[in-house]
Design brief:
three-stranded mixed sheet; 10 helices; 2 domains; Rossmann fold; globular; UDP-galactose 4-epimerase, domain 1
């Protein structure tokens, strides 16, 4: 396939691009380098600097490279920031995505895989969340993902009778974490807020301490519970989604997680174990927009896509993240 990957220089995008290249696809990466890095993009991919909101550039890329499939990662993802600056999230995540989707439809792009989020569920009632659960986001980030899903659904429905129908898979991520097992890629997002990344920064001494945001939730140990998925398993889900669409599959929304949860305190303890460092973790107030627990029911993605996780192990996730953090900091020191 000829695939455009937006945000392909970022954390999850770069891992996905690597896997796409490895199986022989032609890949074009569009990234504005807000949080991505040139070095993270596989050299076999065509790298273009630009923004998804630039309709002329996107249109040109789709035509020039005869793109038939798009994987859309380019989006802002920090929940507290979305609460304090909703305009930023609606402008990029909603308006930018709308322009990208319109360009795809105008250029007969048949397949679209969207980087969505479990944040669309808000505060779910069940311990494990099914795709059929109520969609009630509690923050602008979650709203922006849901609006884009709704846009994709409406466009897919409207153009099913076309010669080239438009179909999509929205992958509702739970918590991406870890780094490439081979050690060449990992999270290098400036001022990242992901728990495991932050804990690894504390373990390597980049941070003097880390904070546990909320320890009075209605969970077993009072801290938030999340479903952590290794980034390489998450990347492989995108390849499976493309294969499904290429085989004539219709539009879907799928949870992408392991189906089990770990608390913030569990994760901190594991990072301390794999690093051998007893770093300081202090209790702090809750952050706005954080649900107490989010765990995926992943039955649907396994059954429909044949997705089989290879790295379902919190210790492996934390160990690869810690080793990457050590290597990343050494790289930064060397470049100074």
């Amino acid at each position: 396939m000829n695939i455009l990957v937006t945000g392909g220089a970022g954390y999850i995008g770069s891992h996905t691009v690597k896997q796409l290249i490895d199986v022989g696809h032609q890949v074009v990466v569009l990234d504005n380098f807000y949080s991505g890095h040139r070095w993270a993009v596989d050299p076999a991919a065509t790298l273009v600097e630009g923004d998804i909101a630039d309709s002329n550039k996107v249109d040109q890329l789709l035509k020039t490279h005869r793109i038939d499939s798009v994987i859309h990662f380019a989006g802002y993802i920090v929940v507290p920031e979305s609460v304090s600056d909703p305009f930023k999230y609606y402008e990029n995540n909603v308006v930018g995505s709308l322009r990208l989707i319109r360009a795809c439809e105008q250029n007969n792009v048949a397949r679209f895989v969207f980087s969505s989020s479990a944040a669309v569920y808000g505060l779910p009632d069940a311990e494990q969340v099914k795709e059929s659960a109520g969609l009630k986001p509690i923050n602008p980030y979650g709203n922006s993902k849901l609006i884009t899903e709704m846009t994709l659904n409406d466009v897919s429905f409207a153009y099913q009778s076309q010669k080239t129908p438009f179909n999509f898979v929205a992958l509702r991520y739970f918590n991406a974490a870890g780094a490439q097992v081979a050690g060449n890629l990992g999270q290098a997002t400036p001022e990242a807020t992901h728990l495991i990344k932050v804990a690894c920064e504390a373990a390597t001494g980049k941070r003097d301490q880390m904070k546990l945001f909320g320890t009075d939730y209605n969970t077993p140990d009072g801290s938030c519970v999340r479903d952590y998925i290794h980034v390489e398993d998450l990347a492989s889900a995108h390849l499976k989604a493309l294969e499904y669409l290429a085989d004539g599959g219709k539009s879907l929304r799928l949870n992408c997680g392991y189906g089990k949860g770990y608390s913030v305190k569990d994760v901190v303890a594991m990072v301390k174990k794999v690093s051998g460092v007893d770093f300081t973790a202090i209790e702090a107030d809750r952050r706005p927009g954080d649900p107490p627990s989010l765990i995926a029911d992943n039955t649907k993605i396994k059954n429909l896509l044949g997705w089989i996780p290879q790295n379902d192990d919190l210790e492996l996730i934390c160990r690869t993240a810690f080793k990457w953090e050590q290597a990343w900091q050494a790289r930064q020191q060397k470049s100074r």
